[in-house]
Every structure is written in structure tokens, then in C-alpha cells.
Design a protein that fits this description.
The protein is mostly helical and 276 residues long. It has helices at 50-62, 68-77, 79-87, 97-114, 117-131, 136-151, 153-172, 178-207, 214-233, 239-269.
């Protein structure tokens, strides 16, 4: 009978700590005197300090390379260049556009909620419907509807982006695939959100104008202008083609937004019934 084979040594529960001259992120060898790992690019590690954390936070907002503030200027004043660079693979110089859009939509939503922007639109609708004899239950649902619109504006707006991107792709399908069309919409949508933030703070809060349907008009204006700009500067379209495509996209996007909003409003508030 053969003797039993020796059992293998138990594997350690945790991996051994990297050598002092190895990168703790990828375990690659660190070059003497180098500030970064040559394999993964992580800076040479050191113990966190308050000064380091503050520097990193300040770096995100103010550093010329890939800063949020820098990207604001690039989106507003050089959207065609941003799109052209991104489509050509020159992306490292820019702050993450998708992350930026999420931040911008979040800021716009918080402002709208704090200013009760959509709730005040709801009050105007309630007054108009009350003048036509709408019952109290219907008026209450109007208020609930506009409260939800303001609270979940970011979810609603972002959920519609894939549908809007289909329209962009249909207009530019000879030059862009669907993913590239979605990215183009991210840049144009970021510009709109920045103008919306500015309008909420300056026009509504400072000047004190009553809210209304001006945000839809603003979105249409921004979309036509920026899509024309990008069509000419990034996609090489002629002026008639650039303007025409921008107009078609903006009209269809607005029609989808209005149609879905009307359908949800009529279904929730009126239960699809014509008032008697």
C-alpha cells in the first residue's frame, strides 16, 4: 500500500503584502526615484494627511487638466472640439463627460426642488383648472404630479436620453453609430443643464420671474444651436444639413417630451377622462 501523499500547505487567507519597492495597487516594480508606477500609473503611495486630502479635492475643481470648471468652459464654448477629440480618441485631456452630466443634472434637480420651481408651475395649472370648475380631487392630483416631476426630474430626464439618442443616430447614422450619437447628446445635454442651472439661479431666484414653459423653449434653443455647431465643426456637415438636422432632432425630442408628459399627466390627474 502506497504511503499517503503529504497534504499541501494551507494557502494564506490573504495575499502577502507587496514588497516595499512594489506598487501596492498592481504589485509591479517601482523604479527608484519615480513618482508613479510605470505599470498602472498610480502615484507612489504615502500616508494620507489632511493637506493631501484638501489638495486632491482642490485639484478636482481647479487643475487645468481635466477639471470640472475647465470642462464647463469647454462644453459651453468649444463643444465641437470636445466631440471631435472624443470621437478621434483624444479623451484623456477631458473630465469624464458622463460623470459631468450626472453632476449637472443633479445640481439642476436640487435647485429646482429647493426653489419649488415645478410646484409653482403646478400652482399655475391648478388655478387655470380651478377656473374651469375642476373638482378638488383633481386639483390635488395636479399638485402631487408636479411635486413628483420636480423631485424626480433627474430620473425622468436621464431615462429619456436613450430614446433621444435614437433620434440623433437616425439623423447622423452615416457618420455616427448609436454610442457616438449618445455621447454627442451627452455634450449637448450638459450644455443645456448648465444653462438651466444659470437660469434657475439668475432668472427665477434673483429676478423673481414666475416659472413657466420657458425651460422647454430653452432646451429647444440650446439643442438647435449646439447641434448645428457640432454638425458643422465636428461632423463636417454643410450649413443647410447641419441646421436642418438640428431642427429635426430638436422638434422630435420636444414632441416626445411633450407627448409623454401629457400622457402621464392626463393618466394620473384625469385618469384619461374628459371632465364633465
Amino acid at each position: 500500500m502506497l504511503p499517503a501523499a503529504p497534504l499541501p500547505a494551507e494557502a494564506p487567507e490573504t495575499a502577502a503584502a507587496p514588497a516595499p519597492d512594489a506598487c501596492p495597487n498592481c504589485a509591479g516594480a517601482l523604479l527608484a526615484g519615480a513618482g508613479y508606477c510605470p505599470h498602472c500609473g498610480q502615484p507612489r503611495p504615502h500616508r494620507l494627511s489632511t493637506a493631501h486630502v484638501l489638495h486632491e479635492i482642490l485639484h478636482v475643481f481647479t487643475h487645468a487638466d481635466k477639471s470640472i470648471f475647465g470642462f464647463v468652459g469647454q462644453v459651453l464654448t468649444r463643444p465641437a472640439r470636445v466631440v471631435a477629440d472624443y470621437l478621434a480618441g483624444r479623451r484623456k485631456r477631458y473630465f469624464n463627460p458622463f460623470q459631468f452630466l450626472l453632476l449637472a443634472v443633479g445640481v439642476a434637480t436640487v435647485l429646482a426642488v429647493q426653489l419649488h420651481y415645478y410646484e409653482r408651475i403646478g400652482e399655475q395649472v391648478q388655478q387655470a383648472m380651478r377656473a374651469h370648475g375642476a373638482p378638488a380631487a383633481v386639483l390635488a392630483r395636479v399638485g402631487q404630479y408636479f411635486h413628483a416631476v420636480g423631485k424626480f426630474f433627474n430620473v425622468w430626464w436621464l431615462a429619456l436620453m436613450p430614446v433621444h439618442a435614437l433620434i440623433v443616430w437616425a439623423a447622423y447614422r452615416r457618420r455616427l453609430n448609436y454610442a457616438e450619437s449618445f455621447f454627442l447628446l451627452v455634450i449637448v445635454g450638459s450644455a443645456f443643464q448648465l444653462y438651466l442651472i444659470l437660469a434657475l439661479v439668475s432668472v427665477f431666484l434673483v429676478v423673481g420671474l414666475e416659472p413657466g414653459s420657458s425651460t422647454a423653449l430653452m432646451q429647444a434653443t440650446v439643442y438647435v444651436g449646439y447641434l448645428t455647431w457640432i454638425g458643422r465643426g465636428s461632423l463636417g456637415l454643410s450649413w443647410p444639413r447641419a441646421v436642418g438636422s438640428a431642427l429635426v432632432i430638436s422638434v422630435l425630442v420636444g414632441a416626445i417630451n411633450y407627448g409623454l408628459n401629457w400622457l402621464v399627466f392626463w393618466g394620473y390627474v384625469m385618469h384619461f377622462r374628459v371632465p364633465g
